[in-house]
Amino acid sequence: MTALGTGGLKSSVSGFGSDQFDESDDGERKMMMRFFNWFYFFVSIGALLAVTVLVYVQDNVGRRWGYGVVAVGILCGLGVFLSGTRKYRFKKLVGSPLTQVATVTAAAWRKRSLPLPSDPSMLYDVDDKAAAGEDLKGKLKLPHSKECRRFLDHAAVVDRESPAAASSWTLCTRTDVEEVKQVVRMLPIWATTIMFWTIHAQMTTFAVEQASVMNRAIGGSGFLIPAGSLTVFLIGSILLTVPLYDRLVAPVARRVTGNPHGLSPLQRVFVGLFLSIAGMAAAALVERYRLTESADGVTLTVFLLMPQFLLVGAGEAFTYMGQLDFFLRECPKGMKTMSTGLFLSTCALGFFFSTLIVTIVHKVTGHGSNDGWLANNIDQGRLDYFYWLLAVMSAINIVFFTIAARGYVYKEKRMADAGIELADEEAMIVGH
């Protein structure tokens, strides 16, 4: 039940939030940028309360009270959300994005042997669909692009010799094809952001294991910080980074780059990936130092782990905000529901990839009685080698990300090059 509820919420809330802003209005477009920043800020506030206040209530008052506080909080949030129902903007649904991808791919494959016209205007498009009296479902006519033309453009080729009536599985509009192309363009960016969440997974697994064998006492009070509570530093770093970026980094970036948004979404993701590499390097150095001192019987303070938590936390703020902004902004308007799914899938795949790497490293480095780098007893393993491995993999990944990012052209620029402004795009409903 919790998984179903969380899945429905996470996959919808950010997209619904972006629907409240008119991208054709410069002022609202800037407000949407800030919305993503502060949206994640308050998400992190909730996470901070979960690992501090809620844990305290459960440990000192009772689990029933802990669950009760959460239930009341959710009900209050639901009430606040429903109170704005009359003021929300609702965008018209234009069908399933997955079905559209499937129909375009299937139609292109079926007609792959047909010749492509030299003039793209000869491809079947929404103009032809409107002339036939078919429902356009609010589709916006998009300019033709050459990417993937040899394959996907076949979906919009009219087969004059086919006696069968055309359907969406045999004939798609050029606009449908262009929307699928936009998704294809984003896939290299999508693939190269998965590695960040693999790094992030270490902060809630091996970093906690590191903390469990270190001195967690605060001063001379005798109070021991629970090893799992060190994620407070991760969340605290996020909470610090978001307002610093909004109030300090973004204004400076606007003046330096001339970009009214400050750093572009892909630039923010790059910063996040770079910080994750620095975080892994810091983690490896601290673990090496800890192993050396542990061999001499010295137990180091747990606060030595703060740099890796702070670096990865700051990286998460940049990566999360950049990814969310990128996928929501660049996904076609008719496929907006897919944007959040693409973003969240990088998080999920990052954790799965972490599990895969751990399994491979354990099998490759462990022989017989030797547990290898990732031993059950952390003092007998070489976790620092594992951290260095992740740092190197992330460094290679950021090279591929940079190549993909440098070759990516934002939708806004592509539309402008075609002589279409964002304001025109909103009004380009065919037939008007």
UniProtKB/TrEMBL annotation:
Membrane-spanning parts: 38-58, 64-82, 183-203, 223-245, 266-286, 298-321, 342-365, 385-405
SUPFAM superfamilies named in the record: MFS general substrate transporter (SSF103473)
Gene3D superfamilies xrefs: MFS general substrate transporter like domains (1.20.1250.20)
Keywords in alphabetical order: Membrane, Transmembrane, Transmembrane helix
Chief site of localization: membrane
GO cellular component annotations of the record: membrane
GO molecular function annotations of the record: transmembrane transporter activity
Alphabetical list of InterPro entries matching this protein: MFS_trans_sf, POT_fam
Membrane topology: Multi-pass membrane protein
Compartment list: Membrane
Similarity comment: family membership: Belongs to the major facilitator superfamily. Proton-dependent oligopeptide transporter (POT/PTR) (TC 2.A.17) family.
Protein name: Uncharacterized protein
